[in-house]
Each structure stands twice: as C-alpha cells, then as structure tokens.
C-alpha cells in the first residue's frame, strides 16, 4: 500500500517537473521571426484588401517557391517609405526603384536593390465612351482631369493647360468622368482598364500610343545579405514564370510583361 502510494506521488512529481521544464524551454527558445518584411499598399486591381489583386497572387506564387521566411504586410504608403528609409531587410512590391530615388533625393543608391522588371505600367488620360480620345499634349489644353493618385509630371500637365482635380479613389475619378463633371480622368494601364471594365458599360476609351508616364514594376529592397539572396531567388522564379506562361496567366489582362510582351528596358 505504502509502495503504491509512493510510486503515484513520484510519478506526479515527475510530471510536474516535466511540464515546468518544457515551459522554461519554450520561454528560452527564440521567437520565430521572418527574415524579410515585404510591404505593400492598396491600389485598385493590383493589391486589394481581400487579396484578389494580381500582385497579391504573384507574391503568393513567388513566396511558395522561395525558401525564405517573409512577412507580408499592407501599410499606408508613408509608413512604407519610412520603413524603407530606416529599416533593415525591408522590401516593397509592386514598386519602381527609379521612382523611389526620385521621391527620396539624397538617399544612397547602393543601399537599395531591385528585381528584374516585371511589367510595364503606363499613365494615360481617359475620355468618355464615344468621344475622341486625346492623342497628343496639345489636346490637353483647357481640359479638366480627375486624378486619384500621384500624377507624374503634374507641373508639366498644368503648363499644358490642364485643370487638375484630386479625388480620393480611382472609382470616384471614373464616376466624375462618366457623369460629365470632368473632361478626362487619369489612370494607369493595366489597372485602370480592369477598373473601367468593372464600373462602366463600355471599355476604357484612351489612346494606347499616347502615354504620359512609363515605368516598370519591380520588387525593391533595402540592401542586406538576406534581401540580396531573396531577390536572386525572385529573379529565378520570375524567369521560369515568363518561360512557362504562368506570369502571363497571373497578371491581369492587358499587362505588358517584360520579356514576353515588351522588351526589357535598356540598362542606364
């Protein structure tokens, strides 16, 4: 009887010590942490709140083939800018390295890296269905244009005689255009083409040969050994996706993919 009671007591003490030891091991173990933060900000058709944007899909496919711990976060653009300037092992996608340097003069360019260009994004002015689209700069004189995000060369557009009206979203710019309250609406190809298809009965009306801005999308990173290795893997996967057609299937219709639809830009 005494022996049985002693054995039960001994087993109970052992279980308690095992639980305490396991708990201490958990406390002592370093917390799992992603090597890289990949930041995005919301934009129609490309990065959506529900993850349905074409770059949402692309990033998931890339990370599925890259054996690097990456934490993906959607943040306001100003917080992303601060993180890229002050952080370590931070990346942004989609973005453009040359635009980042334009917006942050004085940064040390050797501290930043970029993937190979992914697709070509062009800026256009859109007209109402049935109207003649603007085909050259002199056709902008005296026109009012709604724009929902950063308009490159805004000062040049003002000098061309455009009256610029800021609106909070692309949807509102399209609504103003369709209601006849402005003459034109600013937009980007390919994203705006999908927006017009969703919001209007007729396709987007613009001259594809008259672009006011052109830039490549990339994955851009603050330099570190981790981001350097990460971008090397990103470029390898992108190259494979170009060859087997997955990049064309993943990005939205009308995307102009470098190495597939358009030649790679010449290195400067």
Structural commentary:
The structure is a single chain. This protein has two domains: 36-118 and 217-257, 3-Layer(aba) Sandwich (D-Maltodextrin-Binding Protein, domain 2); 121-214, Periplasmic binding protein-like II (D-Maltodextrin-Binding Protein, domain 2), CATH 3.40.190. The chain has helices at residues 2-28, 54-64, 77-86, 97-103, 154-159, 170-178, 191-199, 225-244, 246-250, and strands at 36-40, 70-74, 90-95, 112-114, 119-126, 144-147, 163-166, 184-189, 213-216, 218-222, 256-257. Helices cover 39% and strands 19% of the residues. It starts with a helix and ends in an 11-residue tail after the last strand. The strands form two sheets. Strands 5, 6, 7, 8, 9 and 11 form a six-stranded mixed beta sheet that branches. Helix 5 (154-159) links the parallel strand 6 (144-147) and strand 7 (163-166). Helix 6 (170-178) packs across helix 7. The chain has 268 residues and is α/β, with parallel strands linked by helices. Residues 1-7 and 16-32 have low confidence and may be disordered.
Give keywords:
single chain; 268 residues; alpha/beta; D-Maltodextrin-Binding Protein, domain 2; 2 domains; 6-stranded mixed β-sheet; 5-stranded mixed β-sheet; globular; disordered N terminus
**CATH homolog superfamily of the largest domain:** Periplasmic binding protein-like II
**Percentage of residues assigned to helices:** 25-40%
Q: What is Rg?
A: 26 Å
Q: H/E order of the elements? A: HEHEHEHEEEHEHEHEEHHE
């Amino acid at each position: 009887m005494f022996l049985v009671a002693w054995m039960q007591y001994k087993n109970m003490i052992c279980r308690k010590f095992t639980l305490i030891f396991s708990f201490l091991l958990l406390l002592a173990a370093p917390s799992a942490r992603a090597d890289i933060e990949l930041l995005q900000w919301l934009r129609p058709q490309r990065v959506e709140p529900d993850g349905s944007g074409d770059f949402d899909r692309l990033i998931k496919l890339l990370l599925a083939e890259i054996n690097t711990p990456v934490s993906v976060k959607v943040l306001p653009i100003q917080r992303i800018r601060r993180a890229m300037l002050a952080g370590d092992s931070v990346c942004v996608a989609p973005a453009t390295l040359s635009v980042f340097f334009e917006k942050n003069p004085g940064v040390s360019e050797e501290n930043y890296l970029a993937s190979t260009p992914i697709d070509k994004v062009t800026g256009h002015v859109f007209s109402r269905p049935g109207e003649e689209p603007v085909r050259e700069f002199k056709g902008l004189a005296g026109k009012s244009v709604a724009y929902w995000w950063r308009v490159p060369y805004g000062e040049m557009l003002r000098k061309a005689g455009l009256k610029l009206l800021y609106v909070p979203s692309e949807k509102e710019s399209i609504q103003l255009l369709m209601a006849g309250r402005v003459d034109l609406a600013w937009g980007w190809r390919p994203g705006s083409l999908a927006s017009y298809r969703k919001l209007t009965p007729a396709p987007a009306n613009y001259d594809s040969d008259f672009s006011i801005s052109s830039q490549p999308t990339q994955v851009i990173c603050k330099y570190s050994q981790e981001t350097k290795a990460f971008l090397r893997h990103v470029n390898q996967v992108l190259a494979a996706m170009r060859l087997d057609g997955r990049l064309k299937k993943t990005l939205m219709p009308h995307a102009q993919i470098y190495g597939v639809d358009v030649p790679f830009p010449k290195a400067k």
